[in-house]
UniProtKB/TrEMBL annotation:
This is Uroporphyrinogen-III synthase. It comes from the Bacteria. GO terms for biological process: uroporphyrinogen III biosynthetic process. It holds the Pfam family HEM4. GO terms for molecular function: uroporphyrinogen-III synthase activity. CDD domains: HemD. Residues 1-52 are annotated as: Disordered.
Length: 294
C-alpha cells in the first residue's frame, strides 16, 4: 500500500510548483496612523543619509518676497516638496526728506533695499545685516556695500569698526517695531541715528490654499520661520481645528532663538531647530537634505 503523502508536499516525487494563491490585500494594523495624523516614522531620517519609507516631504516656507522664491528653490534642491505660505504682505515706503544727508545707511533686512535705492545716492556706503541683504543692495546698484554676515549685534560692531560719530548721521532703515535695539547700541556709542520705517509688513489673512491643503493631508514635515514677526503672523492666520493641530505638531526650523521663544509661547508641540547662523543657507542646513531612496 502506498504511503500517504504529507499535506502540502508533492507526492510521487513530483517536482512541479504548487499553484500560488493570490496575495491578500494588506490590512492596516490597529496601530496604523490615521491619514490625517502626521507620524514620526513617515518623516525622512536624515542623519546617516537614509530616508524612511513613505516619507512626508512637505515644507512650508513662511517668508515673503523678496527671498521666498529663492528659498523655495533651495528647499526643492534639498529634496523636499516646498509650499509657499508667506506670513506677511510687504510693501515698500517712500521716506520724507531727511534733515541731513547720512554718512551711511544701515539695513536690517533685504525688504528695506527698494526704499534705500529710491531715496539715496547709490554711492552711499551701505551696511547690511547679512549676505543676502548685501547681495540685493548690490543688485539695486549700491557700490559700497558691507555685510555683517550675522545679526543686529554683528551689524552694530561692523558699523562702529568702519565709521565714527564724527563722520555724520547714520540712516537706519527697518520695518515697524524693528531696529530699536540696534539704534540704541549705536547711540550709546555716540552715533546720531535716524531710524526710519522703510516698508510695511502686514500679516497675511491666511496661510494659503496650498499650505492649508498640505496640512489637511498631513503632508507637512517642517515649517520654516525667518523672523519673530512672521512666526506670530503665521500662527495667527492658522485656521482652528485639525489644520492647526497638524501644524503645531510639525518640525519647525527657525532663524534665531527669539523665533523659537515665540513658537514655544504659542504652544508649538513639535521639535524646534534653531539655525546655526541667522541666514538662509543655515536654515536649509538645519532643515537637512532628503537622501534618495535606494
Amino acid at each position: 500500500m502506498p504511503r500517504p503523502t504529507k499535506p502540502g508536499r508533492p507526492s510521487g516525487g513530483q517536482t512541479g510548483r504548487q499553484p500560488q494563491a493570490s496575495p491578500r490585500p494588506r490590512q492596516p494594523g490597529p496601530n496604523a496612523p490615521s491619514p490625517r495624523t502626521p507620524s514620526p516614522d513617515r518623516t525622512p531620517v536624515l542623519h546617516g543619509g537614509q530616508a524612511a519609507q513613505n516619507p512626508v516631504l512637505g515644507v512650508l516656507v513662511t517668508r515673503p518676497e523678496p527671498g521666498l522664491s529663492e528659498t523655495i528653490a533651495a528647499v526643492a534642491a534639498a529634496g523636499w516638496q516646498p509650499y509657499a505660505s508667506p506670513a506677511l504682505v510687504v510693501r515698500p515706503r517712500l521716506l520724507p526728506p531727511l534733515p541731513c544727508p547720512p554718512c551711511a545707511v544701515v539695513l536690517t533686512s533685504g525688504q528695506a533695499v527698494p526704499c534705500a535705492a529710491a531715496c539715496l545716492p547709490l554711492e552711499t556706503p551701505l551696511f547690511a545685516v547679512g549676505a543676502r541683504t548685501a547681495a540685493r543692495a548690490r543688485q539695486a546698484g549700491f557700490s559700497q556695500v558691507h555685510s555683517a554676515d550675522g545679526d543686529a549685534t554683528a551689524l552694530a560692531t561692523l558699523v562702529m569698526r568702519q565709521r565714527t560719530p564724527a563722520d555724520g548721521a547714520l540712516l537706519l532703515l527697518c520695518g515697524a517695531a524693528q531696529g530699536q535695539d540696534l539704534a540704541s547700541q549705536l547711540r550709546k556709542a555716540g552715533f546720531r541715528v535716524l531710524r526710519r520705517i522703510a516698508y510695511e509688513a502686514r500679516p497675511a489673512q491666511s496661510v494659503g490654499p496650498q499650505a492649508e491643503q498640505a496640512l489637511e493631508q498631513a503632508d507637512v514635515a517642517a515649517v520654516l520661520f525667518f523672523s519673530a514677526l512672521s512666526a506670530k503672523s503665521w500662527l495667527a492666520a492658522l485656521p482652528p481645528g485639525q489644520v492647526r493641530s497638524t501644524a503645531l505638531a510639525a518640525r519647525a526650523v527657525v532663524i534665531s532663538a527669539n523665533v523659537a521663544t515665540v513658537l514655544h509661547a504659542a504652544g508649538w508641540a513639535g521639535p524646534v531647530a534653531v539655525a546655526s547662523h541667522p541666514d538662509a543657507p543655515s536654515m536649509i542646513a538645519a532643515l537637512g537634505r532628503v537622501a534618495p531612496c535606494a
